[in-house]
Input
Amino acid sequence: MKRTFTIIALLSLLIPAMTKAQYAISDTIRTERIVVKSAQFGISLQNNLDTYLSNYNYKGVGIHFNHENFRDARTGNYRWKYQVLFNSRIGYNLQESNMQLAGIIGCSWSGYHPFRIGKRVQLLAGAQIQLEGGALYNPSNSNNPVSAKLRTALAASGMAIYHFPVFKDEWTARYQLDIPIIGVMFAPEFGQSYYEISLGHTKGIVSCAYPINSPSWRHMLSLDIPLHIKQRSTTLRLSYIADLYQSSINHIRCHMYHHAFTFGFVKTIFKIKRENNLKAYSPY
Output
């Protein structure tokens, strides 16, 4: 009986230790399984013109939301990085006593090839697929109160990432530039109502967009600041986003200038399997 009790006691001590050993921390994790996510909210300044609705500029403020997934990829011997970026904004704009409401939702998928310059600087160059939709609404217009916005484009995209020490921490500054090169967009002619389109008069409502008739670009500048709150490491992200869209198609001029100041937090997700080990790593 004593011998049996001793064996049971030893097993009760070894099993937790064996289980814990399966998740030992080491440097052998596969880097493509780590995703850096961020969510940001902020206030935006807007300037909209759409001659389909009015010949006046509408200026106002809005609310901006931004969500990003950024990770390394296995493709090309870990020499590629992927980004999925989602953003949305709702704005309230005025022109004297006239009101305009604006709502835009956009999503982009990007692939980058990195180039290291020393230990602190990383440059990324790649391509991006953009998809954006929304509407401008002028309640004072009686005939055409709504201008729908729908476009997709292939864009050139680049990043510059810089790590620099501040006291005992390391801050990260990042600049991103996206320039649409070629795409298609919903663009009815001046005076062509949506009622006519619903009856089947759809000729010419889809147009090709390129830098000559639709010169547009997007700037994003962000700063990641490590915070140490109650022995926990948290990263604060401050960003400035300038989304500058313009077009002159089918005798209709449009621009939507959007400047957002946002803040949010960054989280690193470790997607590991049971047989993989864990390592603290960031694809930035």
Observations:
- The longest strand covers residues 146-166.
